[in-house]
Amino acid sequence: MTVHAPERRSWPAWRARALAGLAGIAQTLAFAPRDFWWLQLLAMAALFALVERSASRRQALWLGGSFGVMSFVCGIWWLYISMHTYGGMPGVMAGAAVVLFSVYLALYPALAAFATRAVPAAGPWRAFAFAGAWTIAEWLRGTVFTGFPWLSPGYAHVDGPLAGFAPLLGVYGVTGLAALAAAWLARAVVPVVPVVPGALAARRLAAVAGVLALMGVGAGLARHAWTAPSGKPLSVRLLQGNVPQDMKFERAGIDHAMAMYRDMIVAAPADLVITPETAFPVLLQGIPPEIATPIREFADRTGSHVVLGAVGATLTDRGPTDLTNSLFGVTPRDQTLYRYDKHHLVPFGEFVPWGFRWFVDMMHIPLGDFLRGTATPSGFPVRDQRVALDICYEDLFGEEIAQALRNMPEPATVLANSTNLAWFGDTIALDQHLQIARMRTLETGRPMLRATNTGATAIIDAHGNVQGRLPAMTVGALAGNVQPYGGLTPYVRFGNVPALALALVALGLGLAMTRRSR
Fold first, then answer.
1. Residue 11 three-state SS
2. Of 74, 138, 350, 392, which residue is the catalytic one?
3. Which InterPro entries does this chain map to (predicted)?
4. Which of 134, 174, 289, 413 is the most buried (most CB within 10 A)?
5. Is 342 a residue of the active site?
6. CA angle 194, 197, 199 (to 5 degrees)
7. Is 74 known to be catalytic?
8. How many angstroms separate the CA atoms of 137 and 78, rounded?
9. Whether the Cβ atoms of residue 172 and residue 180 lie closer than 8 Å to each other
10. For residues 190 and 467, what is the distance between their CA atoms, to the nearest angstrom?
């Protein structure tokens, strides 16, 4: 005699898509500032259950797309502010741009759902294929067209037990494991394949045991010390000027910002003082002596190392060329400036993609084509440590930070990010970016310092814990101590290769079972 799990029935297409969209909204609520990692699992489990009951791969494609569109529209709506409030783009056009961009981003979860539905429901292979497909899809989303991995599901787990896998597999690996756990949860609640008597309870128990095992291993890995303290703590001061974006590039705003940051820098000594991205919104050579000289004298007198955000350029007879978004390091009693040029530029903000000049021209803000930094970062020397600098959007790309660390002759022991998120107002973008930075500390086993214009200025330790943070949209200096860490985590050594290899194996086995079943 054969008994069945609850009969598999396809939901009406519109209802299933609506439920997938609601699940996408729920996933967005799992990210910062709420940090409900468990909600991300439930949302993805709901999507897997819907894909399991879908009538075809085409319907599964629509389900993944509905999930993605609603997740991204609710998660990156703040892009509207940069385009409309500060860019002057008509509201309808700015809103349409956010929706269309969300539709593009949703192609990746749609493809993951499509690939999952192609695998037979019987056996464990579809759950593993779901995990592999999501891992690969998220990696592609973070790579294609320079990448936009914002809201990758793994980020929701920085405070959950799966975070223990970050030093091994990175955020994409955590995403894949979250997808696997979600699939097992869905099968524990709503299995769809016929089973013999007694097997249903056993399969449900196995699914729950698998989830608990993943969580337990992750919690255990979180206790392992992949890196170790290096030297004595550094004293730091992270400056937050709260310069309004609509004033930043006006003459009065430029003069105000330069004078304010000069005064904030020289107010108190520290081993390392960092300003936000383009805190000095002029060419480095355009910083007047009454601003630059006191900073140099302060560094020489106190032994403080100062990192300034400004625009780099080559001066020629025809004017400045080769503009770069740069950070400049002032070393005590050394006239040579350390320089870091941003290499992963923001599309539309720092370079104009081919064919989109018309779109940029609709915004009345000083956007331009910056030159990509090409030099291999060596780290800014501070006392007996080295600090790996990056700018704003660059800390979305963990594999690039890992590559920079392993390519350094002396791997940096502290990460530092200089950012200006004033373009996006006082929104969830600030908390989301902080959450992303916390994942970078878990992946690399190193602390990160964040100096931002409007927030979230913070000190994050090597274990992803926020040690101190300034309130958003305020003027202040965050002072504290940070312990450098040395050594290389497996993720720093191998990057995304292990996660992608496991994902390809999982998805490949599932698809192989599909051909075999035919």
1. coil
2. 392
3. Apolipo_AcylTrfase, C-N_Hydrolase, C-N_Hydrolase_sf, LNT_N
4. 134
5. yes
6. 70
7. no
8. 24
9. no
10. 42
The topology (CATH level 3) of 228-488 is Nitrilase/N-carbamoyl-D-aminoacid amidohydrolase (3.60.110)
Domain ranges of the chain: 13-225+496-517, 228-488
Among residues 52, 138, 277, 394, the one annotated as catalytic is 277
Q: In sequence order, what E strands does 472-512 have?
A: 476-482, 485-486
What is the pLDDT tens value at each position of the chain, 518 positions in all? 444 444 445 567 889 999 999 999 999 999 999 999 999 999 999 999 999 999 999 999 999 999 999 999 999 999 999 999 988 889 999 999 999 999 999 999 999 999 999 998 877 899 999 999 999 999 999 999 999 999 999 999 999 999 999 999 999 999 999 999 999 999 998 876 665 666 778 888 888 999 999 999 999 999 999 999 999 999 999 999 999 988 888 889 999 999 999 999 999 999 999 999 999 999 999 999 999 999 999 999 999 999 999 999 988 878 788 899 999 999 999 999 999 999 988 887 777 777 777 777 777 666 567 888 877 788 999 999 999 999 999 999 999 999 999 999 999 999 999 999 999 999 999 999 999 999 999 999 999 999 999 989 999 999 999 999 999 999 999 999 999 999 999 999 999 999 999 999 999 988 887 666 55
pTM above 0.90, yes or no: yes
